[in-house]
Design goal:
The chain is of the alpha/beta class and 176 residues long. Helix content is 42%, strand content 19%. The chain binds S-adenosylmethionine. The site of S-adenosylmethionine has 23 residues, from α1 and β2.
């Protein structure tokens, strides 16, 4: 192996390790802050959108938007979808997918920590797939910032001491 090839290989390895380290730190932070990245799966996302009755012109917010699939599918139904996501790689990927599908005017992704982001007042439906211990503080934040009547769709975990209005499997719909 000649010297320049060995140097190139070493540089590639260092870049890969830095990338993995940054990813690990972000994943750890996301896990502690709200939830690690776990995809809901297309079937479950469709259940969530159906339960919320997502349609043309509706304004929706996905808290922890992951790879962007929920917002992109909502945008294909005509909704104005915003995804908040802490991981910059997932934000980049989501914006890339939105651009490729020509949906940039309907599905946008913001790199933000949801705990330090003021939820837009005009939001009609919020989607959540977060860790169980974060549900109580999240309910308080949603109540403080959004209008009464706003629908909250939660995958997998319930809000303590709040009764869902509808339920399909482990997807629940609440109303503020
Ligand atoms: C369980 S995944 C849900 C992904 C997507 N909504 C879905 O249902 O497929 C939770 C997402 O929340 C993100 N996340 C974790 N903490 C966050 C925070 N403080 N602010 C914004 N996003 C956060 C994670 O990076 C992850 O992508």
């Amino acid at each position: 192996m000649n010297l320049w090839f060995a140097t190139l290989l070493e540089a590639a390895l260092i870049i890969f390790l830095i990338f993995m380290l940054v990813y690990a730190v972000y994943s750890l932070f996301a896990t502690i802050s709200f939830a690690p990245y776990v995809h809901s799966g297309k079937k479950k996302i469709l259940t969530m959108l159906d339960l919320a009755n997502v349609e043309e012109g509706m304004t929706i917010l996905d808290l922890g938007s992951g790879n962007g699939d929920l917002c992109i599918l909502a945008a294909t139904r005509g909704a104005n979808a915003v995804g908040l996501e802490i991981n910059p790689l997932l934000v980049w990927l989501s914006n890339f997918k939105s651009k490729r599908k020509d949906l940039t005017d309907k599905a946008t992704f913001v790199r933000a920590d949801l705990w330090h982001y003021r939820f837009p007042d005009m939001t009609q439906v919020v989607f959540v797939y977060g860790m169980p211990e974060k549900m109580r503080p999240l309910w308080t934040k949603l109540k403080n910032e959004l209008r009464p009547g706003t629908r909250i769709i939660s995958h997998a975990f319930s809000f303590p001491e709040v009764s869902p209005e509808k339920e399909v499997g482990n997807v629940r719909m609440y109303r503020l």
